[in-house]
Design brief:
Length: 491
């Protein structure tokens, strides 16, 4: 956690430094550009002033260029005096391309610098963009103007201003970059460190509580809400719902294991007693056979239970194989009906099949048979002698329904939501002692088979009046379409 916090803070600081530096560079670049254009304007103004001084003396018909004692061209004294007020570098060139005037700055230059100044001026275009000429260790921005009026003996005026100031960053910018910015960055990084500390502390707290809760014994506990941060609150909400789901499935698992061991305990005890009885030397031969027969019966029951548990375990894992084939449901219903007739006769229950549709679907025949049989045997099992069980297979535009109605015990409204739960029986004692007492797994498996076929299993029941179980299975896409008449089982 500390490492992540440090890493994020350092990253933030680095980002701040990069941004600050980029900003400083941009600001100083624009400042320098601004300073250069100001110096350029200054040089232009100087050149203009010199031009105006020369133009004025021309207007006053004063000679501008005269010859000195050595017969060299030079500017007249009057004009030179006036030009001396122009600041910076001023160089005036005559029509005969002689330098006739240089301002004090230029006149004071050593020979080598004067030579480089002259070379630079020669390359400078007239009335064109300003050019920077390096003279000694300073840089000077020059502009040149041509004089077109040929009555004037001067052809060119060059003016220059030092750019030393423009290259140096202004003092306030230097202070900002080197004094204020580091302080701001340090403060922001410190703030970031503190902020991250709070968040990471909360995450660590959540982690510790989750670790405590998920040790398996405290799944009833929940994380307390975090009002300060919506992101952490969302995380807590998700974790809480995950813990709730874990709690439910852990409880279901515990219940399932307890139920399964409980269900196995009785037949095992009976089996043991039977085997002991059969092995006892005091037992008569007939009794020994009876004991072995009972042992066989219990073994079969246990095998059934284990088979059912295995089916459900595979279904839970999603590791079931449906052997899909075209199943003629009318034929299957008839087969189940015939079995029901035999079971019904033994139980004194009348079994009828008022209607059956001609319909096929693609499904797992063995599983569907198990499902149909389970519904029908339940109906007979929970209907007392003298009662009635009706079976019907109906075709609808998009699906097919297999319905089983009985006039038996029915299920209490409060029990209806539980009947598909594993090991659930309305009356545990009666079911176990009854002749065909089940384990309470049949409907759980039936519901799974229905769902695995994309269908559903529903129940309507009134205690003491009877029940109606309806299985709905979707038709294959190619078989869908309208049907003429819908049939339902009579009340
Ligand atoms: P079992 O092996 O006990 O029949 P099931 O899962 O098939 O297990 O059924 C669970 C419980 O649902 C039964 O114990 C019974 O209480 C109730 N039940 C199922 N079918 C009917 C029915 N047709 N009429 C009344 N109760 C039923």
């Amino acid at each position: 956690m500390i490492r992540a916090r440090l890493k994020l803070t350092l990253l933030f600081t680095a980002a701040m430094i990069v941004t600050g530096t980029a900003l400083a560079v941009a600001v100083s670049a624009s400042r320098t550009a601004g300073a250069y254009s100001a110096i350029g304007r200054e040089a232009l103004a100087d050149a203009d002033l010199a031009m105006r001084i020369i133009a004025q003396s021309a207007r006053m018909r004063e000679p501008t260029v005269i010859r000195d004692s050595t017969n060299l061209e030079t500017i007249s004294r009057n004009v030179a005096e006036r030009l001396d007020v122009v600041p910076g570098y001023v160089v005036i060139v005559s029509r005969k391309a002689n330098v006739v005037y240089t301002s004090a700055d230029a006149a004071d230059l050593p020979d080598t610098d004067w030579a480089s100044l002259q070379r630079g001026i020669a390359d400078l275009p007239n009335d064109g963009p300003a050019g920077v000429i390096t003279i000694g260790d300073e840089r000077v921005l020059f502009v040149a103007h041509a004089i077109t009026d040929t009555t004037i003996d001067i052809s060119r005026v060059v003016a220059g201003v030092r750019v030393r100031g423009a290259q140096n960053l202004p003092a306030e910018l230097v202070t900002t970059i080197f004094a204020v910015m580091p302080v701001v960055i340090a403060l922001a990084s410190w703030g970031m460190w503190l902020l991250l500390g709070g968040t990471f502390r909360r995450i660590e707290e959540v982690r510790r509580v989750v670790a405590d809760i998920t040790d398996g014994r405290s799944l009833h506990r929940r994380l307390s809400d975090d009002e300060a941060s919506p992101e952490i609150a969302a995380l807590i909400l998700t974790l809480n719902s995950m813990i709730a789901r874990l709690e439910t499935s852990f409880a279901a698992l515990r219940r399932f294991t307890a139920d399964a061991s409980h269900e196995l305990k009785t037949p095992l005890a009976v089996l043991r007693a039977d085997v002991e009885r059969a092995m006892s030397s005091n037992t008569r031969k007939d009794d020994r056979l009876v004991a072995l027969e009972e042992a066989l019966h219990e073994t079969t029951r246990m095998a059934d239970l284990v088979e059912s548990l295995l089916t459900l375990a595979r279904a839970d894992e999603g590791r079931f194989d449906l052997h899909l084939e075209r199943v003629d449901l009318a034929e299957l219903t008839l087969e189940v009906y015939e079995t029901a007739l035999i079971l019904g006769e033994a139980a004194g229950v009348a079994v009828n099949m008022p209607f059956s549709a001609e319909v096929s679907i693609s499904g797992d025949r063995t599983r569907l048979r198990q499902l149909f049989l389970n519904l029908v045997t339940n109906a007979i099992k929970y209907t007392p002698a003298g009662g009635r069980v009706d079976i019907g297979l109906g075709r609808h535009p998009d699906n097919v329904t297999f319905a089983v109605r009985d006039t038996g015990a029915g299920i209490a409204a409060a029990d209806v939501p539980h009947i598909f739960e594993r090991f659930w029986r309305a009356d545990r004692v009666r079911s176990r002692t009854a002749e065909r007492g089940g384990f309470g797994l049949g409907l759980a498996i039936s519901q799974w088979i229905a769902q695995a076929h994309g269908g559903s299993l529903a129940v309507q029941s009134r205690l003491g009046k009877g029940s109606l179980f309806t299985l709905t299975l979707p038709l294959d896409a190619a078989d869908r379409g309208s049907v003429d008449d819908l049939e339902i089982l009579p009340e």
